Batch of 3 targets.
Target 1
Amino acid sequence: MLGPVHINTRASPRVMLVEPSKTTGRADAEMLEIVQHLLLSSPPGEFDEVWYDAQILVPKLISPQILAGIARAYNHENLSVAKTADGLHVLLHKAAEISPTRYVDYTTRATFRVDHVLRGAVTVKETLIPTMHDVMRHAIDDAARSYVMTTFDVDARPSAAVHVNVGRAELVIAMSGERANLSNFWSGNWRSEWTEQWQRNS
């Protein structure tokens, strides 16, 4: 059964991923929106549990495509971390997104294919990354990664990333840590984002 719902007030009300087809009844459309809301409001570490309960209640209502879209929105909002088979962590931040399932890591200069539902990642290839302000980006990235690794417990899977947005002349800094102990009914997430703009002629 679904337990008490902890509303994530940061979940964007603009996200509307449910697009019922013309053959979908009004009741089903309303249930889709309710399930989407519950999933986007899942407490840290409990997205899978909420989805498990939703499948029992409405087993055929949500397509894999809709679920992937909801999971992507949730991962961006909560700065979730995907993990590769060899242990690399990929911070799922919208500034790192090339396409809905492709993300770039400026530190390793690698591109990853991401499964938003399973939060798994596979290294695809190295990619060409703009070198503009790379010295600044690298220095901030080192400081951010050092901060989360010395401040967060290792079990929180701390991650940090610094992205370059050349078109908007800015650096985007993201940090995230999450820890859950669902058997003892607690979980927590700490995340933070900063944007640093520079002059275009600098």
Target 2
Amino acid sequence: MSCKQITNILLNLFYPLDFESTSNKYESLFNNLIKEKSHLLISSIQVSEFINRCIRIQFKLYQNAIRSLMMVLAK
């Protein structure tokens, strides 16, 4: 599994953008792993990529909010 795939799974689990989604295959898998007391190994590169993606997503949301605010104020 590539670093990008693992990062996407981590984003889906710990930084969901769609809070309405209730059925999540990754969440079921993760809950099963926890229930079985399995150990998960994640490299520092994967953690770094996850944090980087979270920051980029949040910055994009911030930019869109500022852009919307500027459009309202310009009217």
Target 3
Amino acid sequence: MRFLQNGKFCIFESNIFMMDLQTRKNEFIEEFLKLQSEELIAQLESLLKNKSVPEKNSIKPMSIKKLNSRIDASEVDFENGKFKTTEQLLAKYK
């Protein structure tokens, strides 16, 4: 993984997922120590503190009955004008 100076990162090794966890952690730390972007470091700190990436087992499957119930409720909301446009959502996160 390489972190670029513009605050973005890219994975350049196709076999990165074949490494064991300890090797991946070590490589991450080495790349982290080379970072010069304060903004990127703050983003990574926030990610670690909030753990906004869900754990594999934290997402529970939904029953078909529950899914259909949520779809029905969403359709009623839409018919009653209870929704946000793409523009509204994008403006909220700018």
